[in-house]
Amino acid sequence: MNWFGFGFNAFGQIRANEKLTDGESAADANVTNPICIDILCRNLEEEPVQICQHSSHVDTRIRTSWSRRAALHSNNDGRLCLAGFGVGIPSQRGCGGCVEESRGCQDAHISEGYLALSFTDRVECWNSERNEKKPGWSMEIPDNTGPSLAFPLVPGGYIASNPPFYRPLSPQLLAVSLALGTEHAVLLTASGDIYTWGSGSHGQLGHGDLSPQEEPRAMEALLGMPMSTVAAGGWHSVCTSAGGDLYVWGWNESGQLGLPSRALRGEQQKSQGTGGASTCKDQEEGSNEVFISIQAFPALVDVTQSCEVSKISCGSRHTAAVTSTGDLYTWGWGEYGQLGQGTVSSSDEPRRVEFFKDQGLRVVDVVCGPWNTFVSAIKKDPSLHPDTNILYPL
């Protein structure tokens, strides 16, 4: 399995040996087409190639922040390898080394200020801006007698990106998964219900209004439809049903919901020299298309009619989905190439990233950073059906 990256790369979090020269801006380092990234703990001497055969990892997970990227290897004593902007423990700009303090780590959460490490018996939070010898905060984890939890969930609550790190949750929720946005949270329960709380200024809570919620509140519009995954962007949210349907809500200024965006269409027309906002308004009045700025209720989006959505992830203002056929679709803000379409254009329609199909690769996972995207893919088995990669009986 190989990992690929594209999008914002000003700190070398994708192409770790990228260095800006005098006169270059951060945009010059951006990656608009997927490239295979080296996630091992070593310095790179050669330019990465698109299909690399040397980095096969059993269960490698990527965690991201705006300026950093962490790779957690299950076959490397559970240690993290860091790349990106220089952090205090212990890597420098570019390809970082292993975080020795993370040995035995089960999962991690990385932000601009802190690195949270989850172990079987404890959680540690390290300050990313200081070269500390011990974590700035830690907590012992009691035995979990409930459903299996995905970090940042821990028994009795969850670990936030900033102090106070531990936030309690009602045990009646039976939470199994939690996605943290910039100012809101989206929680999935064992029964498939969704609860949201935090700021609702852009409709990201999905309750039909823009009001904040201090405590988790059930999304009534989705009750009775069991959900299987949740994800949170900067100010938007998405989830998938048990049947592979995709639901979206929140801010849509850049088309990150996959719904028609008036602001985006206006920008596109300006760049094409066909008018701008006034032209976009004329088109709106002369057609049946309805433009969405804020979607305060969940809306169903057809990524593709031929298959189901199996994995989802959100960046600050873009979204990525993996289908059951192993294809990757992206949409939303694309100014740094984070859509992987070879351009810096944005899109309010889900579009397949053709690179993976052209290379005979099946996408198995996707992780969005705020302004970039990371994808794991495997070679399609030639003995399987070419479109679905499902073995058919002879």
UniProtKB/TrEMBL annotation:
Gene3D superfamilies: Regulator of chromosome condensation 1/beta-lactamase-inhibitor protein II
Taxonomy, superkingdom: Eukaryota
Signal peptide: none
RCC repeats: 192-243, 244-325, 326-379
InterPro entries for the chain: RCC1/BLIP-II, RCC1_domain-containing, Reg_chr_condens
Protein name, UniProt field: RCC1 domain-containing protein 1
